[in-house]
Amino acid sequence: WQTENGANMIAPLPGVVSTKPGSAQRPLPGISVDVVDDKGEHIGKNQAGYLVITEPWPSMLRGVYGDDQRYKDTYWSRFENMYFAGDGARFDDDGDIWFL
């Protein structure tokens, strides 16, 4: 959860997937995420990288009141066309997300 996200983005779905202690699990329906390297390129499983959101989502913030450029500079400038809040992560062999 992050205020700017407006909702939970990654969580276990009880009854759908088995929970895995320590793992954030999977993106919720409608949320597209990836783990990328310093250049914004997708990296393989079990490799540390940066968690990004790759597509717009229903509850996304569209700006900061009185300073829309600040929002763009803070969350959308590190990787082109990807939202990045600063979290390190990796996908495991099952595709579950682990924050680092």
From TrEMBL:
SUPFAM superfamilies: Acetyl-CoA synthetase-like. GO terms for cellular component: cytosol. InterPro entries: ANL_N_sf. GO terms for molecular function: acetate-CoA ligase activity. One of its GO terms (biological process) is acetyl-CoA biosynthetic process. This is Acetyl-coenzyme A synthetase. It comes from Brevibacterium paucivorans. The lineage of its organism: Bacteria, Bacillati, Actinomycetota, Actinomycetes, Micrococcales.
